[in-house]
């Protein structure tokens, strides 16, 4: 199989590259800058730089087409929100190449947190009470409804820009900093106590082919996980299949869900229609089989499998030494690093380049570094240059589904 992995800056993109490359598949990586960690893996046949899908969509599609033609790519695996631009412009991709992704319509329904809420209700999956705010006044009214609240933009990711009066992130973001509009609404929910539970799944023709449920015992800045521990998947696997069924099509692609475990009751919070770090917990053979759909039952990661991003764990220990140092030292000594066994250290050495890239993107915009890291590859619900009339109508329909 000849594969193109896009947005190779991500740790989980590097993991996908290693998994497929180690099995003998021909893997090419791409990103919008040359220093992306995954673009320097020894498991690559080649790597390339593309235009930004967000800021220069036409040239991005041209660059992808050039890579596909030059390397005879058969399958494109997106690893971040460039998936929306590829799905919206799938008619402009070369004939014969497959995009491991659902339709733009389905992706938009899953990504927009307001329409996602309606979708999971239809699927019979528990979700907290939700109020959609479309202006500053309705946002203030919504948060006054709940003694303890949790609010975020309909298009957000990575635990960035969270408005809450409860927990370690309380006060990090002010109501005055939130600018909800009808096109960019905010969701307000009662704060649900309990740990976050995350999932990662591959889906082929409407059927879950692999699944992992995990927690992040250690997090960077109370948002992005840096250690990952697999837990029981019984409930989340069932919920994932229900949501896929509710999409009403033979969905193919990668889905990642966040739940809150409130004393044993899981509540769906959001969906990332792309991979997350859960893929790291899958074995290489299992991941490759899951991509093809050639499995009789979903491949499920057993509870207890654990991985960490050691560099991030070490950095976090120095950022908050009193709180994190004992746990960090334990993890560094006992938890397997995501790069262990790959003998691919050159790629890891490029990690600072990703931070530099994020700092450049966020310069002068007062953006948190975590948010800026993907600023050139995100999609925030806007119409996409060159999208079909049908997809434009689908986007309007998604907006209309907000509750």
UniProtKB/TrEMBL annotation:
Gene3D superfamilies: 3.40.50.20, ATP-grasp fold, B domain. This is Putative ATP-grasp superfamily ATP-dependent carboligase. InterPro entries: ATP-grasp. GO terms for molecular function: ATP binding; ligase activity; metal ion binding. The lineage of its organism: Bacteria, Bacillati, Actinomycetota, Actinomycetes, Micrococcales. It comes from the Bacteria. Keywords: ATP-binding, Ligase, Nucleotide-binding. Residues 117-300 form the ATP-grasp domain. SUPFAM superfamilies: Glutathione synthetase ATP-binding domain-like. The keyword Repressor does not apply.
């Amino acid at each position: 199989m000849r594969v193109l992995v896009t947005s190779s800056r991500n740790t989980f993109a590097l993991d996908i590259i290693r998994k497929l490359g180690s099995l003998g598949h021909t893997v090419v990586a791409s990103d919008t800058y040359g220093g992306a960690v995954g673009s320097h893996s020894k498991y690559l046949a080649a790597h390339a730089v593309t235009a930004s899908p967000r800021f220069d969509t036409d040239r991005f599609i041209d660059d992808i087409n050039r890579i596909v033609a030059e390397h005879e790519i058969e399958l494109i695996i997106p690893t971040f929100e460039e998936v929306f631009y590829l799905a919206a412009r799938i008619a402009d991709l070369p004939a014969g190449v497959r995009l491991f992704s659902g339709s733009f319509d389905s992706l938009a329904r899953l990504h927009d947190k307001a329409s996602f809420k309606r979708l999971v209700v239809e699927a019979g999956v528990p979700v907290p009470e939700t109020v959609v705010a479309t202006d500053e006044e309705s946002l203030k009214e919504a948060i006054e409804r709940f003694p303890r609240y949790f609010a975020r933009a309909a298009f957000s990711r990575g635990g960035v820009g969270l408005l809450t009066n409860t927990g370690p992130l309380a006060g990090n973001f002010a109501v005055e900093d939130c600018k909800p509009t009808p096109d960019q609404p905010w969701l307000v929910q009662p704060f649900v106590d309990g740990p976050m539970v995350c999932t990662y799944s591959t889906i082929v023709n409407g059927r879950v082919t692999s699944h992992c449920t995990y927690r992040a015992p250690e997090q960077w800045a109370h948002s992005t996980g840096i250690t990952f521990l697999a837990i029981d998947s019984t409930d989340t696997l069932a919920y994932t299949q229900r949501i896929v069924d509710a999409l009403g099509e033979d969905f193919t692609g990668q889905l990642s869900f966040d739940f809150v475990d409130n004393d044993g009751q899981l509540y769906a919070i959001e969906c990332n229609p792309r991979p997350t770090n859960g893929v790291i917990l899958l074995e290489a053979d299992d991941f490759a089989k899951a991509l093809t759909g050639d499995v009789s039952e979903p491949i499920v990661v057993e509870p207890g499998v654990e991985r960490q991003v050691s560099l991030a764990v070490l950095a976090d220990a120095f950022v908050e030494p009193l709180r994190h140092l004992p746990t960090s030292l334990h993890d560094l000594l006992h938890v397997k690093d995501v790069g262990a066994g790959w003998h691919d250290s050159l790629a890891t050495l490029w990690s600072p380049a990703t931070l530099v890239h994020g700092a450049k993107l966020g310069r002068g915009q007062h953006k948190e570094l975590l948010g800026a890291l993907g600023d050139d590859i995100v999609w925030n619900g806007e119409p996409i240059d060159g999208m079909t009339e049908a997809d434009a109508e689908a986007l309007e329909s998604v907006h209309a589904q907000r509750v």
